[in-house]
Amino acid sequence: MSGEKPTNLPSEAELAGMSRDELVKLGTNLDGVELVHYEERWPVKGTRAEKRAERLVALWFLISALSGLAFLVAFLWWPWKYETPRTDAHFLYSLYTPVIGLTLGLAVVALGVGALLYTKKFIPEELAVQQRHDGGSAEIDKATVVAELADAGTRSTIARRSLIKRTAGLGAGVFGLGVLVLPLGSLVRDPWKNSDSKDSLWHTGWKSENGEKVYLRNYTGDPHEVVLVRPEDVEAGGYLTVFPFRESERDDEHALVAATKRVDNPVLLLRFRPGQQIVKRAGQEDFNYGDLYAYSKICTHLGCPASLYEQQTGLLLCPCHQSQFDVFHYGKPRFGPATRALPQLPITVDEDGYLIARSDFIEAVGPAFWERKS
Ligand code: FES
């Protein structure tokens, strides 16, 4: 092949009658490409070394397929629900993220290594020089490029390497399935199965079941310690993060810990200074108890915990994208991407003087979702 451009270009009829080799040669000439070095990797076909190389490539594709399969199985069936520490179930639960990360990572890496090894071991070694030219491609160039690509496929010898083709197909297929399952997997659990359940998106752990009292619990970091809150425990201008607690859960370590882990449970209990000007939301005028107000800590933008509170201005900042909520003005957003106010938890005090929730939030907590209208 030479870098010289042919002076006599073939007619359309001649082009249609040309073999693939002739088209490849014509194409490289038209592109001003000169092949200065070309060498087959395996000039003698079927040697033991060639078969060894083939098995090595196939092995990587097989590893990719098996890891992809392991990822699919782990993603769909590994026990992912929170379990109390110091139990066998917790050990398995804690492995969920590492296992899906490792298996997916290995599937991608092994697929890449297999493709890389194939290129190094089977694609002919060649060195070509091409002159640069400007502008779009002519019809003739497009036709010859197709021939060149087909020719490259033939020279790669992939057609006669069925072991590699099968394992590469398997690896890529399983990996593709994994990519498909990722978004679909999250749709398998139907959040609307029982929309009245405290596990549905409309409710939180503050929902009372069978009329049982739900106390505001000050979490000290020790899952066994239950510290209930009285109004006098929060000083003027101060605040506490509280979680729901029921007497029926007092000796249930799993339930005690789970209540502090559930994403929509954290509530910020604030005590405003006497005389502070407060704007209440229509219909929620009695949600507070004196100077005490309880707001969901879950940002209505994308669900980060909003915990940076500035008591002078009454602004609660979400650190993720800097939304600011005005707790003096029913948790209304003042700045940033959040558009909805923080939901307020209706609270009161029971006959023993402990703060309790009068009910669950009257609206869904956290970010918007498809079925949400407000
Ligand atoms: S999650 Fe709070 S501002 Fe985005």
Automatic annotation (TrEMBL):
- Compartment list: Cell membrane
Annotated Rieske domain residues: 264-356
The alphabetical list of record keywords is: 2Fe-2S, Cell membrane, Disulfide bond, Electron transport, Iron, Iron-sulfur, Membrane, Metal-binding, Oxidoreductase, Respiratory chain, Transmembrane, Transmembrane helix, Transport
Q: In what way does this protein cross or attach to the membrane?
A: Multi-pass membrane protein
> Is Disulfide bond set as a keyword in this record?
yes
One term under GO cellular component: plasma membrane
Spell out the InterPro entries in the cross-references. Answer: QcrA_N, Rieske_2Fe-2S, Rieske_2Fe-2S_sf, Rieske_Fe-S_prot, Rieske_Fe-S_prot_C
What Gene3D superfamilies does UniProt report for this protein, alphabetically?
Rieske [2Fe-2S] iron-sulphur domain (2.102.10.10)
Lineage top rank: taxon: Bacteria
The prosthetic group or cofactor this protein requires is: [2Fe-2S] cluster
Question: Is Oxidoreductase one of the keywords UniProt gives this record?
Answer: yes
Annotated GO MF terms:
2 iron, 2 sulfur cluster binding; metal ion binding; monooxygenase activity; oxidoreductase activity, acting on paired donors, with incorporation or reduction of molecular oxygen
Question: What SUPFAM superfamilies would the database entry show?
Answer: ISP domain (SSF50022)
Q: Which residues cross the membrane?
A: 57-78, 98-118, 168-188
Q: Which family does it belong to?
A: Belongs to the Rieske iron-sulfur protein family.
Checking PANTHER family in the record gives: CYTOCHROME B-C1 COMPLEX SUBUNIT RIESKE, MITOCHONDRIAL
Could you tell me what this protein does? Iron-sulfur subunit of the cytochrome bc1 complex, an essential component of the respiratory electron transport chain required for ATP synthesis. The bc1 complex catalyzes the oxidation of menaquinol and the reduction of cytochrome c in the respiratory chain. The bc1 complex operates through a Q-cycle mechanism that couples electron transfer to generation of the proton gradient that drives ATP synthesis.
What is the protein named? Cytochrome bc1 complex Rieske iron-sulfur subunit
